[in-house]
Structures are given as C-alpha cells and as structure tokens.
Design a protein that fits this description.
Length: 119
C-alpha cells in the first residue's frame, strides 16, 4: 500500500470588519481579517488543521496584526465584537515608505512631507 501524505498551508479571507484600533493610524479603521492555517493531507485530502493564526490588515496604512484566536472567532461570528489593541500583535508596521528618500509616509499623501517627491 502506498500512501501519499504531507502538509500544506492555506489562507482564507474572512471579510472586512469595522472599528478595529490601528496603532499606526491612531484611530479605528476597517480591517481585513484573514485566517492562515497549516493542514495535514493524505492523497491531497485535508485531514486536519493545525497552527491556525488570524491576521488583521489595516485598509488604510496596510499594517498587519496577529489577532488572538478567541477574539478572531468571536469577531467572525459577531461583527460587533470589540477588539482592543491588546488583542493584537504587530507583525508589520503600517504606512508606506517614500521611494525617493525613505521617509515614512501615509498612503493618502500625494507628496512626501520629507522631500516633496510625488508619490
Ligand atoms: Zn492603519
Ligand atoms: Zn521622500
């Protein structure tokens, strides 16, 4: 008998949620919740999942946060769940970087406040 098995990872978007605090924007924003997980498969049929992690990404500054699983599950059931900044861990900082001078800028800036270069 020959068994073909292995592991893979998958990502699933769970929708956009309002009113999530963003450390970089300093206000509450809409964020995209996504679920990342690893799975074990036999003959390419997923048998079980493990290492499920939830991420939030700010639609305004593109910061990425890891969200505690309990809160993420609660949020996906009830969009009005209050998410506080202590439920989130920064994975990637927000804001864009000016290609000209490397200064941190906001995505809605048209000109870099540092060097005046058009973005
Ligand atoms: Zn943000
Ligand atoms: Zn610049």
């Amino acid at each position: 008998m020959f068994f073909l098995f292995g592991t893979g990872t998958k990502q699933k978007d769970m929708g956009r949620f309002l009113n999530i605090p963003c450390l970089f924007c300093n206000e509450r924003h809409t964020m995209l919740l996504s679920k990342h997980y690893s799975y074990f498969h036999v003959f390419f049929i997923p048998i079980f999942r493990y290492n499920t992690t939830y991420y939030l990404s700010c639609s305004d500054c593109s910061a990425v946060y890891k969200l505690v699983s309990d809160k993420a599950r609660q949020l996906s059931r009830d969009a009005l769940t209050t998410i506080e900044s202590h439920d989130m861990t920064v994975i990637k900082g927000g804001f864009a970087v000016c290609a000209h001078c490397g200064a941190q800028i906001q995505h809605d800036n048209v000109y870099c406040p540092q060097c005046g270069h058009k973005i």
